[in-house]
TrEMBL record:
It comes from Corythaixoides concolor (Grey go-away-bird). Residues 548-580 are annotated as: Disordered. Signal peptide: none annotated. It comes from the Eukaryota. GO terms for cellular component: NELF complex. Residues 548-557 have a biased composition (Basic and acidic residues). GO terms for biological process: negative regulation of transcription elongation by RNA polymerase II. It holds the Pfam family COBRA1. This is NELFB factor.
Amino acid sequence: QAAMYAGLQELGVANGEDLKETLTNCTEPLKAIEQFQTENGVLLPSLQSALPFLDLHGTPRLEFHQSVFDELREKLLERVSAIAVEGKVEERYKKLEDLLEKSFSLVKMPSIQPVVMCVMKHLPKVPEKKLKLVMADKDLYKACAVEVKRQIWQDNQALFGDEVSPLLKQYILEKENILFSNDISVLHNFFSPSPKTRRQGEVVQKLTQMIGKNVKLYDMVLQFLRTLFLRTRNVHYCTLRAELLMSLHDLEINDICSVDPCHKFTWCLDACIREKFVDNKRARELQGFLDGVKKGQEQVLGDLSMILCDPFAINTLALSTIRHLQDLVGQDTLPRESPDLLLLLRMLSLGQGAWDMIDSQVFKEPKMEAELITKFLPMLMSFVVDDHTFNVDQKLPSEEKGPIPYPSTIPEAFTKFLQENRIACEIGLYYILHITKQRNKNAFLRLLPALVETFSDLAFSDVFLHLLTGNLTLLGDEFALEEFCTSLFDGFFLTACSRKENVHRHVLRLLLHLHHKVAPAKLESLQKALEPTKQSGEAVKELHNQLTEKLELRKPSPAEATETPSMELPLPTVPTPASR
């Protein structure tokens, strides 16, 4: 009740408490009420004769006053918004400041609060004292517009952090939900949405709105993202770094875009991510940005490396690298002779080195190992040649010779590169994704053993397993073969299931999708091997339960099982109609 009249006394306006006091201390209450109404009603002479007319219609005075009040408040809100855009800048803000001074004492009065909040919203600089009063009161802080909150946040990093933190958690959770989604498809995967679609997401839009044109708040968010990336090594923070900048770019917030040294680089890379390929023209642009980092400005490499560490950027660079290698095979050209390929490797290296660079604060491009270019990439090209040779051999008449077997061994150096060199490992994994997508079972089974031990366990990362499980749906018919299942499950997946819960989840996702293709005996042994342990999380238990339910539904009922032999009786022969 007190809140309804908050601040009226300070302005010398009578309120409910005054009326209560008047009625308590008077001898003629009706006269006192009439006097109170006259003193505090709408002071318009022509209205006095009209009010009894409302009484005849049974309209309470409260209803009348409320409707007048609402109408006046709407007019006042419109006027405040008009003042904020008319006349000279100093004059309009002076008017608003005066209005705020007069009305601020009523800020806690629910009916007047929207007007006070509207005045503050249009002031580019609300007086410090008033901001502190708003910040100290939870309800006022909650009610004020984002324009006012920005002014509070820019000097209160901890408070801003409290507002941003739940959004960042939500963002990471959304990314992980996509990676672990039960919908496994080669067409619709983690990387399918276009960059523009992704930045329409709730979190990016909310953060963009919270930042507005405020460079200080933008810098704070970037600092949060760097800190969280360092603390967790979670690459989705790098994605958000790029998405946020491009969201501000879409809205043409030049106050921020013009001061972010990564803007043009990110804009160009964003176009490459949209096409899932780095073409020659854009490659030259990107190279220009990297070569243009001046002495004394090397710190920008930390931000550029974070932009390049975004999984969407890595995906684009790796896909482009595989495509370049295939082109080089056709051109009889070595990797070291292709400037475009070397640039892709340079950017991959910068992206993969982001965490180390930001952690060590040594802003220098990582040195590329010569052997990556002189040994590893030619080795990948030799695998492409092996495939071509095998395919040609299959088509040749084979009277003189028996069929040539597909090469089954892999060079020891290949396995070593995948274990010791991060860039080689990334490219090697994308090559394996490429051959799986081509349904090249022979090449897949040949290279699969190399994935058991990789640099930093990259072959067991969520992004790779998400893509691999999607691509494996193209080899669905192979799951009926014992040899294929043994190589894939026993030889690869199950080697890590017990120590890595995410692998356990991805295998269960794959089986939920392809269980009907797997031989029953193998499926049963896999179901046992994948049983959750006491340490397993809820997600694993839930997936295993889903798989068990699906398998139960597949089992024939006892009645069907007993009737099965009758199917073996000889069927009556049906005479075929004579052909005319």
